[in-house]
Amino acid sequence: MIRRPPRSTPKPSSAASDVYKRQSYVESDDEGHGHPAKNPRKVSQCMVIIETDEGHKGYSFGANPQIVEKVISPILLGENPFFREKIWEKMMHMQRIVTQIDERILSTIDLALWDLVGIIMGQPVNNILGLYRDKVPAYASTMCGDTIKGGLSTPEEYGNFAEWCVKERGYRAVKLHGWMPPIEGAPDPKKDIMACAAVREAVGEDIPLMLDSYHFYSRMEALWIGRELEKLNFYWFEEPMDESSMSSYKWLSDQLDIPVIGPETMTGKISTRAEWIKNDVVDILRGGVGDLGGLTPLMKVAHLAESYNMAMEVHGGKEGNLHALGSMRLPGEFYERGLLHPHVDYEKPPDYLNEIMDPMDDEGFIHMPTGNGLGWKINHDYINDNLINDDAVSYTHLRAHETVLDLVCRLLLE
User: Fold this and answer.
1) What are the b/e assignments for 130-157, b being 16+ CB within 10 Å?
2) How far is 349 from 164, CA to CA, in rounded Å?
3) Considering the entire predicted model, what is its pTM?
4) Rounded CA gap, 35 and 19, in Å?
5) pLDDT, tens only, 153-208
6) DSSP structure class, residue 391
7) DSSP per residue, 15-37
8) Cβ(313)–Cβ(333) under 8 Å?
9) Which H or E element spans position 251?
């Protein structure tokens, strides 16, 4: 229930969600890392729709549909969609009480609002932000290591896949995700470095390479890996330790020449990044729409980094991050494209889209979307044909027929 800018007369509108089934070719292991699915399977997904009184609609994907109905919709009630800063702050403050509103839910709603404003204005979001460039070089971001033959089960397979990514597909750089638990023998610093060495040999000395390693190494393990990466002329070293220990990252970056990048998943949004800059903790800042809670805070972090002449590499790909990168000069060098695997066709659009958001040209660049809003090419026919009846959707956090006030009171009492 939102309205256009103050010059328009407010009329009732809605914030709603459609839940549907889609085909997935990826599955998660016991610790949440994605791998090619043994068998394609149907999974549920939520599409958020924010509609104005004049019939304009903004879309985004993700979020719990009952949180959208019970918590987010009342926050949007009567608001002007152009007041994104105000709306985002209200949602962020609600996180203190409704802990089910995580950064990804904030991001989903924030992106739908950006999409809506672009639709109303008849402009791509990147034009509204203000473009610095119209294309961004992409790096190939691999899935984590596995035990799949012909996949990413050995250092040699990492090397073969990286060679294909660079020499056949045209990627400008490559980032490895190493082997993670519950893969047998993981984590293993030596095996990670063997994969890094195989990739360096396969692509040559001129291609930037990065490692996103196991995230809970000790200080000494991380230091050893970092020094080995320096020998291989790697471009950056990402998230090797628990990010809740800021002093560990300062200790590490002070001893290494290779740039250390972070924080990625540490809570605290903009404030955490400010503290890491202030304390000279890392060489490159990190942030993405999913980590920070949307495009609105991501642009704040980009400008924060820029004011310190500091790089800020964007975590993850897809729509919000891509539009943000078009508006950066200093902070973000690359677009992270993936996660990629020899057994997964990244170029195939998911069922609910007619086109992927980030097609790459032959020279390894992703071009800014030119469609209005975020530039979605949504397959509405597919979504409508695969909607899930409300009775079939399981909600674990919120109870039926609660108002937002009921919900807040219950959570305070539990």
Assistant:
1) eeeeebbbbbbbbbbbbebeebbebbeb
2) 21
3) 0.91
4) 24
5) 999 999 999 999 999 999 999 999 999 999 999 999 999 999 999 999 999 999 99
6) G
7) EEEEEEEEEEEEEE-TTS-EEEE
8) yes
9) helix 246-255
